[in-house]
Write a structure and sequence with these properties.
By secondary structure, this protein is α/β, with parallel strands linked by helices. The chain contains 7 helices and 15 strands. It has helices at about 35, 70-75, 85-95, 120-130, 195-210, 230-235, 305-315, and strands at about 20, 25-30, 45, 50-60, 100-110, 130-140, 145-155, 160-165, 170-180, 185-190, 215-220, 240-245, 260-265, 270-275, 285-290. Strands 2, 3, 4, 5, 6, 7, 14 and 15 form an 8-stranded mixed β-sheet that branches. Strands 8-9-10-11-13 form a 5-stranded mixed β-sheet, with no helix packed on it. The chain has a two-stranded parallel sheet with strand order 1-12. A hairpin with a 6-residue loop joins strand 9 (about 170-180) and strand 10. The two termini are about 30 Å apart.
């Protein structure tokens, strides 16, 4: 049993495997995300009371729309100082997120000089109409940066946990539990280290956490590809599975590597796995339409007002 650092939202209630998606893998080619956001989420009950969810994982680089390697140098100041184009870009991201049910974000800023001390998770949730949001700040650099993972959801988690990952301070995993009991769905949002040796330690630790749950969705920037030792180790040591490896996400302007992943327990069916072509970051997002089995008692859509206020209060500052 792995010790957990828990942050309850309300009173608590008691070898490599590759999956073929049911539908064809698709790359969306929308230049403006508005048409995506205007399509309502298909979340709902399927025959047998299974549920369909639309998932997205996205490293947003704090709203910086890098489109060339040289931008890391010529636009490096944007990682420290505020700029108007960041908010234009975040508005485009918010419009794009509107058609999804659960979104995991990496490289979000929870409020610092470069964002005008505005929590980007809160901003995106409000602009995209998500009733629940939470950010896990892992690296606090005073007024200059507040590096975070984040979760946006149309479903109310029954429990929320923040866990630091092995290695130097600054990396963590955010775990949200949907439902209660042994059949709850556990969502993991994380961003692994740049160095392979540290990633292998983090993967071993993640596997222990994942194995505590029957139904799991892991979303994040893992900084390694499907053929890597790290992913092979994670798939070997857990029941997690992934769609076939033709979903490259980095760099966004010429994607050659799959650094971003959504990994699932085998009981969760993939209807579609695809890469939206959103040029809002140095990464492309990865998206999936999945079917959650009827045995998982997911909460209803939306959050009661009192609970929503509690969620927001828990992430302030």
């Amino acid at each position: 049993m792995v010790p957990m650092v828990e942050k309850p939202i309300q009173e608590r209630v008691g070898g490599p495997r590759l999956m073929s998606a049911i539908g064809q893998n698709i790359v969306l080619t929308t230049g403006d995300a508005r048409s995506n956001a205007e399509t309502r989420s298909p979340y709902g009950t399927l025959p047998g009371e299974a549920r369909r969810l639309r998932l997205l994982s996205y490293n947003i680089q704090t709203g910086i729309a890098s489109q060339r390697y040289r931008h890391y140098i010529t636009q490096g100041w944007k990682h420290v100082l505020p700029h108007a184009s960041r908010w234009y870009n975040l508005d485009r991201i918010a419009r794009a997120l509107g058609s999804f049910d659960i979104v995991g974000l990496q490289e979000v800023d929870s409020g610092s000089l470069r964002t005008g001390f505005i929590n980007q998770t809160k901003y995106l949730a409000e602009q995209a109409g998500f009733p629940f949001w939470h950010c896990q700040t892992n690296r606090r650099l005073g007024k200059f940066a507040q590096h975070s993972n984040a979760l946006l959801s149309r479903l109310t988690p029954s429990e929320l946990m923040e866990q630091p990952l092995p290695g130097l301070p600054g990396r963590g995993v955010l775990i949200a539990r949907l439902g209660s009991g042994a059949e709850a769905l556990a969502l993991f949002v994380l961003h692994l280290a740049l160095g392979r040796r540290t990633r292998l330690r983090q993967i071993a630790y993640l596997a222990d956490l994942v194995n505590e749950y029957a139904y799991v969705i892991v979303m994040g920037d893992l900084n390694c590809g499907m053929a890597s030792q790290e992913i092979n180790q994670l798939l070997r040591d857990t029941d997690l599975q992934s769609p076939q490896d033709n979903l490259n996400t980095f760099p966004s302007w010429q994607p050659r590597w799959r650094l971003d992943h959504i990994l699932l327990s085998p009981g969760i069916a993939i209807e579609r796995a695809y890469i939206p072509a959103w040029m809002f970051s140095d990464h492309l997002p990865i998206a999936m339409d999945v079917v959650i089995p009827s045995g998982v008692a997911l909460p209803s859509m939306g959050v009661p007002e009192a609970t929503a206020s509690l969620h927001k209060a828990s992430t302030a500052g």
